Amino acid sequence: MLEKIDLSRKMSKKECKELMDRFEPQLSMLQRELKARKIPVTIVFEGFGAAGKGTLINELILPMDPRGFKVYTIQKPTKEEEMHPYLWRFWQKLPEAGRINIFDRSWYTKIVETRAEKKKDSDKIENAYNDILDFEEELAQDGMLILKFFLHISAKEQKKRFKALEDNKETQWRVTEEDWKHNKNYDEWLQAYEEMIQKTDTAYGSWTIVEATDREYAKVKIISKVIEIFADRLADEEAKEKAKKQPVKKKAAEVKPEEAATEEAVSPAFTASVLDAVDLSKALTKTVYKKKLNDLQKRMSLLHSELYKKRIPVVIGFEGWDAGGKGGAIHRLTEAMDPRGYEVFPTAAPNDFERAHHYLWRFWNHMPKAGHVAIFDRTWYGRVMVERIEGFCSEEDWKRAYSEINRMEEGLADADAIVLKFWMHIDKDEQKKRFEERMEDSFKQWKITDEDWRNREKWDDYVEAVDEMILRTSTTYAPWIIVEGNDKYYARIKVLETVVNAIEERLKKK
Questions:
Q1: Alpha-helical regions (H) of 168-285
Q2: Residue range 107-135: mean pLDDT, rounded
């Protein structure tokens, strides 16, 4: 397909100026409207070396308010970045609501390079493209506008531009041996780019191929396309708002029988329940607890060092009822670990800055590098529990979150991480007892709030949400472990044993 593109297209400077005089105020106005509607925008530029990405990005941003955008030039990953899952560094660079982030090269660069140069990881390309498609789809479903431009020039034009840069003392540093190698292997790169476009051209992230031989033509094509896509998105938003204001009601006769059935109509007898089967009578004596705790913590201390040596990352998530014992279990787990090799992240309600991003953004920022352990005291599962029950997100949002979370955890596992998730389970009577004990203890009163008491009133709603969460997101690569927590001794030992066993199993495979 790319070899059939007419790369001889040109535009006079006069025509370019006339069009830009019209386009620039439009682009400036559209940027303001996107900001007002809090729509995040990501613009990706990929293409051949010397195709003019830097120059054309500069032309694009000139009419825009510099306070509303940021440009990222993506170089080879640093050592720190290489020790994280591949998409980690890109999650960190995503725009908040109302801002525009522009990428001079992107998450596609390494994959295309691997394919074009036939590197040893070439067999993993298919999985990498699937991860990117999931990534972009999640962002788009969360409201992000994604634009992707591929700058296309011929091998002859690329060679000419490299030569011109090399002949100029001020720019010769920009041309490397690697660049000349790419030009020599132009056909392999062309094929790799072709594959990239074919596999990732989607409704939510379509590619615009830009004939970049002539700078004026390329500039006008890019800016006109940006204006078109920005305007279409704003028109869609306006149409949605009008539709909300004028809901169309069906007459009773028009409602189909299957539409009248609701989830509430399903008999509870046919609803799968995980929590109902949990045996909360399990317990340990203090003597047995102390012996097991000592043995397990010694093993954990040694294993923590092995994790670092073998560069295995570990992600551990804790969810559970208020007063379910998360803090106590985390404390016993980390007591014997080197504090330089782990971090505990207590998750509270998102602040305004975090809410301006995709809900997974703040968790991606804390994912551990290879050899380190990240422990989350409450996790991304708030989306399908508290946000679902309290109405902090739409039904469409939380229902979509199950697959989004599964994909994220699968990506972590593909990056060699051990992923474990604990649900700390207690019954309602035990929770009440612990609440009352906290109220009477001056050192623990801070742990109990009015919100905790209020949440008890929605116990049954949470049971339903937790059951569904566990059933839909407990996987082979990121299993849920339900911890019988009425007895604190038993719960702490079960958590420690599970973590120790999982690490030992992984080290055997290594």
A1: 177-184, 186-200, 215-245, 257-260
A2: 87
